[in-house]
Specification:
mainly alpha
């Protein structure tokens, strides 16, 4: 237990002290938010979605920043593998479960900071919601990030430090596009139909809670559960394959 707590504390402090990563992780979504939502702050139904532009982009870019934060754990894992840090940890009392728990806690810390930063930005553009709806949106977001946490661990044990940056950046961009981060996907069409089975789509749909909507139906929960199982299985397999090497 002491080893697990010590390592988790080390991971949290190391991430917070990485100023470049910290500023870019929080600053990039904020800049995009003001560029996209600022000129449309008086639009009360973005492209017929029924959600004001300030709220829609707040949740969309919160999803973008949170996904980036979750997948960034893969970059740290890949770097640690490259320098032999993972191998050193395996000869310590630290268990694999505690190791992964520390990565998850760190990723969720960054994701929460990204959410809070976007929420503050949203209020600066006039977003006002009851406390219960803030909490409901946040709760859905945190649940929706679980598959991305597993994916971050999986790619971290497969890719190298040189390749993981483009892979994560491209992956987040693709998830953001298909999920409707940049614009509402409407009610029909090929992209809309595909998006129903993509976890990032349901992250963005949490914005509908702001005005009494019901963003997650049975399909959403099934999609989230299926991707979580798939990515978790990939993470376990990648870890075992990596640690099984001589």
């Amino acid at each position: 237990m002491n080893a697990a707590l010590t390592y988790t504390r080390f991971e949290l402090l190391r991430t917070l002290r990485n100023r470049r990563f910290f500023v870019l992780s929080l600053g990039f979504p904020l800049v995009l938010y003001f560029l996209l939502a600022g000129p449309q702050r008086n639009v009360h139904s973005l492209n017929g979605s029924g959600v004001p532009a300030s709220v829609y982009y707040m949740m969309g870019l919160a999803s973008f920043g949170a996904m980036s934060s979750m997948l960034s754990s893969g970059g740290r894992i890949a770097t640690e593998r490259a320098v032999g840090w993972n191998r050193q940890l395996r000869i310590t009392p630290l268990s694999p479960r505690a190791y992964f728990r520390a990565k998850l806690v760190t990723s969720y810390m960054m994701a929460l900071l990204s959410l809070v930063a976007l929420y503050i930005a949203g209020t600066s553009l006039g977003v006002t919601l009851p406390a219960g709806r803030w909490l409901e949106m946040t709760g859905l977001m945190l649940v929706g990030l679980i598959p991305f946490a597993a994916l971050g661990i999986a790619v971290g044990h497969v890719l190298t430090p040189d390749s993981i940056g483009p892979a994560v950046g491209g992956g987040v961009s693709l998830f953001a596009f298909v999920g409707g981060v940049w614009f509402p996907l409407g009610q029909h069409g090929f992209i809309h139909d595909v998006a129903q089975y993509i976890p990032s789509y349901w992250l963005v749909q949490a914005s509908h809670v702001a005005y009494g909507g019901h963003p997650w139906n049975a399909t959403a929960w099934i999609v989230m559960a299926a991707w979580t199982v798939l990515f978790s299985g990939m993470a376990v397999r990648a870890y075992r394959r990596d640690t099984g090497r001589v």
